[in-house]
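User: My collaborator sent over this chain with a note saying "see what the structure looks like." That's all I know about it. Can you take a look?
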Amino acid sequence: MKITNIIEETKPISSNIKNAYIDFSKMTLSLVAVCSDVIKNGKPVIGYGFNSNGRYGQGHLIRERFGPRILEAKTNQTLNENGNNFDPVKIWNIMMTNEKPGGHGERSVAVGTIDMAIWDLVSKIEEKPLYQLLAEKYGNGKANRDVFVYAAGGYYWPDQGINGLTNEIKKYLDLGYSVVKKKIGGASLSDDCKRIEAVLKILGPNDKLAVDANGRFDLKTAINYAKALSNYDLFWYEEPGDPLDFELQRELSYYYKGPMATGENLFSMQDARNLIRYAGMRKNIDWLQFDCALSYGLVEYLKIIDMLKEHDWDVSRCIPHGGHQMSLAIAAGLGLGGNESYPDLFQPYGGFPDGVKVENSIVTLPELPGIGFEGKADLFSVMKKMVG
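Assistant: Without extra context I'll predict from the sequence alone. Here is the result:
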C-alpha cells in the first residue's frame, strides 16, 4: 500500500467582485489529487483536495517541497499501525520535516490542500463518509449530518447598486438560507449603512444578516462602524481589523456588544491560541472561523479544537470560512457550529453534492464515501480530468 503520485493543477476562480481589501480578478486555487495503489471497485483510490478562496494556489510549494517528501517516504512511514490504511498524522509530519516553526503564511495553505486530499483518500479506503470516520475516531461516534450553513455574498460588484444587492440576497433567501452575509468597508460608512438597511428590509422575521470588513479597519474606523452597527440586530460583525491585531479586537469588544467573528486568516494552532488568549473573544457570544484548508489541514485543526477545549470554548462556536465540503464534514463529525457557503461564487469548488437542498439554513449531508466530491458532478468532472 503506497501513494503513487501527487498531482497539482492551479485553477482560476477569477471574478470581478471586490471586498474591502482585495479584488478577485486574478484569484486562483490549487487542485490536488493524491493517487494510491489501493484498488476499490476495480479502480485505484484517489483523494482530492483544494484550498479555499482568498489565498492563491500553491503549486510550487506542493510540487517542489511537500509532495516530494511524501513520495520519497518509506511505505511504513505513511501507514497506520495496522498497515491497512494511510495515517494522516504521520503523513502530515512527513510534510513538515525540516520546516521551522512560525511564519504561517503560504506553506500552511499548501499543506492544508494536500491534507484534505489525504483525508479524502483515507475515508474512501475505509468506505465511509469522512464525517462518520471523524465522529468515530475523534468525536462521540455519532455524526450530526444536519449542518448549519449561511450564504456568503454581498460583495462589491461593478455598477451593482442597491437593487442588484437586494436581488442577490433575495436569491439566497429563496434558496433556503435564513442567514446571509454582505461585505462592508469597501464604501463609506454612510453608504454601507444604506446597503445594510436595504438588506434588512427584505429579511423575514427569522432571517439574519452578518457583515464582514475583511480586516480593513484601524481601531478608530472599527469603533465608528461598531457604533453604527449597534443600531442593527446583526448575526455578527466580522474581522474588523488586521487578523493579528488582537489588541484592536479586544478594544472593540468594549464598544460593540453584539456577536463578532474572526479567525479565517489565522493559519496555525499557535495563532489561534493567541487570539483566544489576548483578543478578548467572548466564548458565549463570538464566533471562530478557522479554515482547515488554509491552516495546515485537519491535523492542525484537531490541535486547535484541543486548545479550544483547554480554554473552555465549545467547538460549536466554530463556523469555518471557505464554503467547501471538507469543513462540512468536520462540522458534522466533530460538532462544529456550521459552515460558510457560497451559492454562486468560486464554482465548481464551493457548494454541496447534487440534490442537497438548504432548508432554513440547514443542509443534510448525504452518505457518500470520503469528503463527497464525487457527488458534485461539475466539480468531479474537473477532478477526473487531472488523473486521466
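A starting point for your reply to your collaborator: The chain has 13 helices and eleven strands.
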